[in-house]
From TrEMBL:
This is Uncharacterized protein.
Amino acid sequence: MTAVERRARFVHLTRLSWDLHGLGVCTSLVLPVAGQPILEVRTPTGTTLVRITVVRRHCGWAFVWRPWWARLWQRGEWVWAEADNAADMIMSAVTA
């Protein structure tokens, strides 16, 4: 992964975190020494509801919140990172 890709992942997750904050959702951005950054969405009691990563696809960047094998088989478990309503779409999918 290049430095440009690492920065893009960070920027997308930070923007999503801010958008979720605007919806009244608690988030934590996890930046491990090795590996991808992860955005954790938490309940008001502090329990982790979902972990979101951002991956590069052939058409752009996408937020993914299920294991890699699930995103290959099921719809509704990813959304384009550039979507204006990505935070709304993610929250409606994970709280349904």
